């Protein structure tokens, strides 16, 4: 039995898209618990429903039916205004496209999200601390066009953390990066998880999956299997990669 606190709980979660006169059932009666402090990775073949699940359990999209509780709050019955406030204060998102504002500096891209969650002085101090943590302090006055892809994604992670969010959701955050810059981003996320940050990430990347403490495999709108990997350590990466590969192969990945 998992003794960690449940931070996301779904029951009979369904998502249906209407296409003309027919409905496409993308998520089918999913019962799921996500636990505090885990690095949860969701994988599956194209069309399995993994991204739809991520958006449904993160408040980014409204499921068609079922129950979704995030941090003890029933998001299914929230108004759009309540959801907007919830997203700003409680959760944050990292996407494949970093969505940085190109007319703002590295520091400004992080701080503008935080203003309104705390005093300006505290947000500025926290932003500088995050830049230092991610090795970006010397780039604080640079614009996104002057940064590498890996640096831009680390800025996006800093932006996701500035408001003190309890859960980070990632949708293929290393998908557009090469191997070395992708590793830098994964190292940053792993470091955050080691510090207690809860992370839920969709990926198709085997290397990214090895960072998971828990791996969920989706197919045809269901969660078909899961693999508990425990805490990541670099010296066990090769062994973990082999375990993950064998697990995915068993699922027909």
Automatic annotation (TrEMBL):
It holds the Pfam family ABC_tran. PANTHER family: ABC TRANSPORTER ABCH.1, IMPORT ATP-BINDING PROTEIN. InterPro entries: AAA+_ATPase (IPR003593), ABC_transporter-like_ATP-bd (IPR003439), ABC_transporter-like_CS (IPR017871), ABC_transpr_LolD-like (IPR015854), MacB-like_ATP-bd (IPR017911), P-loop_NTPase (IPR027417). Coiled coil: none annotated. GO terms for molecular function: ATP binding; ATP hydrolysis activity; transmembrane transporter activity. Residues 8-245 form the ABC transporter domain. Keywords: ATP-binding, Nucleotide-binding, Transport. One of its GO terms (cellular component) is plasma membrane. This is Putative ABC transport system ATP-binding protein. Transmembrane segments: none annotated. SMART domains: AAA (SM00382). It comes from the Bacteria. It comes from Anaerosporobacter mobilis DSM 15930.
């Amino acid at each position: 039995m998992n003794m960690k606190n449940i931070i996301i709980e779904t029951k009979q979660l369904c998502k249906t898209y209407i296409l003309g006169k027919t409905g496409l059932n993308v998520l089918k009666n999913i019962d799921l618990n996500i636990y505090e402090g885990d690095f949860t990775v969701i994988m599956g073949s194209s069309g399995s429903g993994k991204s739809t699940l991520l958006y449904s359990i993160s408040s980014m999209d409204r499921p068609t039916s079922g129950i979704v509780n995030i941090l003890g709050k029933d998001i299914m019955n929230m108004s759009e205004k309540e959801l907007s406030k919830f997203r700003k204060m409680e959760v944050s998102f990292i996407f494949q496209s970093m969505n940085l504002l190109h007319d703002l500096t590295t520091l400004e891209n992080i701080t503008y999200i935080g203003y309104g969650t705390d005093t300006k002085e505290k947000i500025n101090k926290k932003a500088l601390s995050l830049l230092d943590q991610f090795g970006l302090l010397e780039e604080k006055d640079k614009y996104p066009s002057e940064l590498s892809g890996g640096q831009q994604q680390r800025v996006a992670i800093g932006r996701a953390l500035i408001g003190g969010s309890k859960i980070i959701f990632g949708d293929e955050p290393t998908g557009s990066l090469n191997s070395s810059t992708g590793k830098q981003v994964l190292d940053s996320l792993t470091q955050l998880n080691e510090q207690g940050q809860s992370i839920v990430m969709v990926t198709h990347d085997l290397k990214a999956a090895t960072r998971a403490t828990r791996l969920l495999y989706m197919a045809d709108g269901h969660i078909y299997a899961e693999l508990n990997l425990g805490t990541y350590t670099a010296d066990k990466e090769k062994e973990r990669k082999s375990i993950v590969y064998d697990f995915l192969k068993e699922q027909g990945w």
